[in-house]
Amino acid sequence: MQIPARFNGPPTSGNGGWSAGTFAVACGAAADGRAFEVTLRIPPPLDTELAVADGRVTAPDGTLVAEVTRAADAGPGVPAASPAEAEVAAKAYPGFTDHPFPTCYVCGPQHPDGLRIFPGLLPDERTAAPWTVPPDVRVETMWAALDCPGGWSALHIGRVYVLGRIAVAVDALPEPGATCVVVGRASALQGRKAMVDSTVYGPDGARLATARATWIALSEE
Fold first, then answer.
1. 66 by DSSP, 3-state: which?
2. pTM of the model
3. Distance in angstroms (rounded) separating the CA atoms of residues 96 and 99
4. Which single residue of 35, 74, 98, 205 has CA 20 to 30 Å from 198?
5. What is the DSSP letter of 133?
6. Among residues 171, 162, 202, 201, which one has the least CA distance to residue 184?
7. DSSP 3-state helix, strand, coil percentages of the chain (rounded to 5)?
8. Under a CB-based contact definition with an 8 Å cutoff, are residues 147 and 166 in contact?
9. H-helix or E-strand spanning residue 38
10. Would you write out the chain's pLDDT as a tens digit for each of its 221 residues?
11. Helix (H, G, I), strand (E, B) or coil at 64
């Protein structure tokens, strides 16, 4: 398998959510409500042949890239926001003016062909954003959509974080072209770690997917 360059997070490595979703799908993840957890051991390399065996993803030189396991669940999820609330929050997305990775496939305003999910803060410090589902939506897309809205619930405090571990359960895929709402919330900040939750809701308000993730700050405070 490969992570094509289109699905970058930082410029030279894969978006954490998309990459984790790709690895999970290779190990059996599907839109069936089962939870899988992926731990990223190094930034996922782009356009590189990766091997998967026994839940371990390795680079050509044998370097461990990620580990995949089944998970009991993917956390409690985040309460929904209305489409109107999400629209208002997204207008104040901090990444429009200060983004550590502005070409990120999920949340980068400068990505030419990304998901364009721009999570802004709600008054209770949840993040929320509308999301127009792309034509090629699949399980990996849902993992990606859950990634950055959770991360921005920690990123807004001014530190740069990257994804370290994420557990996801996808119940169903939305229809291409549908407008969903993605919400995130930080549950704990401990040293360099931020524990965050995120959920995707469909146009009818049904919960489609949820995640619990650990993000790691790139530097000490």
1. strand
2. 0.95
3. 7
4. 98
5. P
6. 201
7. 20, 35, 45
8. yes
9. strand 35-40
10. 999 999 999 999 999 999 999 999 999 999 999 999 999 999 999 999 999 999 999 999 999 999 999 999 999 999 999 999 999 999 999 999 989 899 999 999 999 999 999 999 999 999 999 999 999 999 999 999 999 998 888 766 666 778 999 999 999 999 999 999 999 999 887 778 889 999 999 999 999 999 999 998 876 55
11. strand
Specify whether the CB–CB gap between 37 and 167 falls below 8 A: yes
Closest CA to 46 of 79, 11, 83, 14: 14
Supply φ then ψ for residue 173, to 5 degrees: -95, 140
CB 199 within 8 A of CB 182: yes
Handedness of CA 112, 109, 90, 13 (dihedral sign): positive
Strand 207-217 to 56-58 pairing:
unpaired
Please measure the distance between the N-terminal and C-terminal CA atoms of the chain and give it in whole angstroms. 37
In this structure, which amino acid lies at residue 161?
Y
